[in-house]
Specification:
This protein is an alpha/beta fold. The chain has 15 helices and 19 strands.
Length: about 450
């Protein structure tokens, strides 16, 4: 550790997303000095409210729900308003090459038998979603992709495409890559109800945007928060760490919390290196590699919901905002390379699978897969990853601690999971410091 020190803190938090900000808030409240180092020029990470297409749009994470205990505690704490998009008045789906049109209720009835059969044993595999790998049965389920389990059901073509599209919407990935265990984890978090899982993951949002949550947490901490501060290298020893930034500065800290997404954590230069479980997960990457696009169309239109199938550039599209002479839709697809979210004509073509009557005016989105500070969207594991790696991903290593929604227990991949892990990392550190304090304070000759 030869370099000179520019700053010192009790704790450095790497990453100013939700997990990092929660960690910083909790630790600074105990009187510790905390520095947050965020590479981007904004806070929030994979939540990002931005003014586009004439509205404040959620470019990243959006929906939350009262069954997500950590997220809802923040809603209550800061008095954040909650709202929802317009209720769909019609639904579109495919039966092979034929287009079907009906109500959302009819679509839900269509997918219900497949959903029930697929998820029937959820609570046997995951009786406690807050300890997702506790039951030995999960390892058996974790061998399979959700595609394999869907194929076993031998559904009719219409049911098959409808179920497939609904799962692509959840996984943001080709279903051949997505772990069946991830579907089980989401459903276990809603006590086995696929309907509630569906609602929890895709209906309610913050009235003032996720930016309101980010701003509230950031304003509620005495931590020194820096943006434009990319961390390149970390050296750690049993008594502390040095954190080296891209601009050449070095910060010394007693403890460091790393909140980087799983897909990029392994690229950080850490010495001694991180455990093999963390590195292997990072090399293998998440299953999720999909797309989210915002689409402004000419109005007036009736709010609708549309599901296609996994192979289309967009598998799910719905109305999120209705205006007098326009509407804004949000769409999701399995693979970000299939659709340029800034190409209006490509999005117009993708929509035509259901609707060639809509005129696309403008489109926008963000390529999270190419973004060097995420390289993923929301966590969906590949088969085997959760049973093989989750414990190693969560484990502290010396003075290094880890947070981030990707390594949450309950709602991994969600805003809720980011908060859960921020709280956990802060608790680990205060617990470790308390233990160290008692050791130091103990009378000579005791062995506490
Ligand atoms: C398109 C999309 C849609 C989503 N939809 C939902 C949804 O509807 N509901 C929901 O609950 N969740 C949703 N999510 C997931 C949710 O947004 C994330 O799980 C959550 O925000 C992750 O928070 P985090 O703090 O764990 O990670 P991040 O937000 O990724 O934070 C990590 C931070 O580390 C920073 N960083 C990276 N590298 C470095 C470095 N070298 N040095 C310093 N800083 C670095 C990053 O810039 C980032 O700010 C969605 C995500 C996406 C992308």
């Amino acid at each position: 550790m030869a370099s000179s020190i520019d700053r010192e803190a009790d704790v450095v938090v790497v990453g100013g997303g939700i997990a990092g900000l929660i960690t910083a808030r909790e630790l600074s409240r105990t009187g510790l000095s905390v520095i947050v180092l965020e590479a981007r020029d904004r806070l929030g990470g994979r939540v990002f409210t931005d003014r586009r297409l004439g509205r404040d749009l959620e470019i990243g994470g959006n929906w939350l729900h009262w069954v997500q205990p950590h997220a809802w505690a923040e809603v209550t704490r800061y008095g954040l308003g909650v709202t929802r998009g317009p209720r769909p008045e019609e639904a579109y789906w495919l039966a092979g090459d034929q287009l079907r049109r009906g109500t959302l209720e009819e679509f839900m009835r269509l997918i219900d038998p497949g959903m029930r059969r697929l998820l029937a044993d959820t609570m046997r595999f995951i009786p406690r979603p807050d300890a997702p790998t506790a039951a030995p049965e999960l390892a058996e389920a974790d061998r399979y992709s959700v595609q394999e389990k869907l194929d076993e059901l031998q559904l009719s073509v219409e049911e098959y495409h409808a179920n497939e599209a609904a799962w692509v919407g959840h996984f943001n990935a080709p279903l051949t890559d997505g772990a069946f265990s991830s579907a089980l984890r989401w459903t276990a978090a809603t006590a086995g109800s696929w309907h509630l899982m569906h609602e929890a993951s895709a209906v309610f949002r913050l009235a003032e945007g996720t930016q309101a949550l980010v701003a509230a947490i950031a304003a509620d901490t005495a931590a020194d928060i820096r943006t434009g501060a990319e961390v390149r290298r970390i050296e750690h020893q049993p008594d502390g760490a040095r954190v080296h930034l891209a601009d050449g500065q070095t910060v010394a800290a007693g403890r460091v919390v790393l909140t980087l997404p799983m897909n990029i954590l392994g690229d950080l230069d850490v010495s001694p290196p991180l455990n093999e479980g963390k590195l292997a997960a990072s090399r293998e990457k998440t299953a999720s590699r999909g797309t989210k696009v915002w689409i402004r169309v000419r109005g007036p239109i009736r709010p609708f919901f549309a599901y296609s199938r996994g192979a289309e550039p967009l598998s799910v599209v719905r109305t999120e905002y209705i205006g007098d002479d326009d509407a804004v839709l949000v769409g999701f697809g399995a693979d970000s390379t299939r659709l340029d979210v800034t190409d209006r004509d490509a999005v117009q073509r993708a929509l035509a699978v259901w609707r060639d009557d809509l005129e696309v005016l403008e489109v926008t989105g963000h390529d999270w897969m190419s973004d060097p500070y995420s390289r993923e969207t929301w966590l969906m594991n590949r088969p085997g990853q959760v049973t093989r790696y989750l414990a190693a991903q969560q484990a502290p290593e010396g003075v290094l601690h880890f947070a981030g929604s990707d390594i949450a227990n309950l709602w991994a991949g969600f805003i809720d999971g980011a908060i859960e892990t921020g709280l956990r990392a802060a608790r680990e550190i205060t617990g470790a410091l308390r233990t160290a304090h008692f050791r130091t304070a103990a009378p000579v000759g005791t062995s506490t």
